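Provenance

Sequences were taken from public entries as deposited. Structures were produced by running a predictor on each sequence independently, with no templates supplied. The record for Putative acetyltransferase from Adhaeretor mobilis is shown for reference.
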Amino acid sequence: MIRFSPLHPRDTPELLELWNRCAPYDPLTEQLMREKVWGDYDFDEELSLLALNGDAPVAIAHAVVRQLSAERRGYMKLLGVAPEFRRQGVGQEIVLKLHGALVRRGAETIRVGESAPNYLVPGVDTRYDCAAKFFESLGYTKIGEATNLTAPLAGRDFTTDISDSALGANGLAIRRADANDRESLEKLLKTYWPTWNAEVATAMSCDPRAVHIALKGNQVVGFSAYDGNNRGTGWFGPMGTHPEFRGLGIGKILLRCCLHDLQSQGHARAIIPWVSPTGLYANQVGATVDRTFNRYEFCLGERTSTEMSQKATTE
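Predicted structure for Putative acetyltransferase:
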């Protein structure tokens, strides 16, 4: 008989073994497991479940609720069922339990992955064919696609010299951010990219700070970051330039500064996630498409859990 219990840090070795069997394209380390689950500032024990057959873990599910400007939205961050227990109703049962808990917390919709600022993937990898069929059987709707790129780092030169660019002529400087830049950086983010603030704050907490900035006097007019999410994996982003300062090559130099740092950490490649369009990264650093994801959403108010269960059972 299947029983359910909350995810607990003491169970991390067993959770890792289960997850890495379930999700071969998204392997986790202990550090990443802790970051994705208990390190999420919206962690909720009732939204993090382990299914057990006796004492053996057979399924894992982890969700969060984010308060957005217009709604409260749920996100299915992790979902995996041991291969030998698939098509036995375990995945359906654990998802329905999470749906009920999400409704009680006021969530109107739920999406798979894409739980920025702390997320593992921006959707369902197209290679997980059974996962796509599973979500669609429960009434999830495909709402788009997302793409991750990778840029090769090994043996490449990412040093920069702004004297050869338009930056110096326009009174701009590029350097690593320090504590004194925090206020100006946060002002830029609040104005143009408020949803990126948490990721950039995480990057600013690294030692050395994993944020490079472009300055006009004391004003931050551009930034790039890395290790703001999935730390230690070669994860680049986010990056942005003030609209009035675009077209001067700021993004190109900031990008190369971050890739130089990731190269120095020993990474052979950088992951550039959730990208559209891809041209900048392809042209400047030879980035190529590495993964494609389908994005799914379910409107929790559209159907009751009973209706979902009946649909999944008959399909």
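The two ends are 24 Å apart (CA to CA).
DSSP finds ten helices and 13 strands in the chain.
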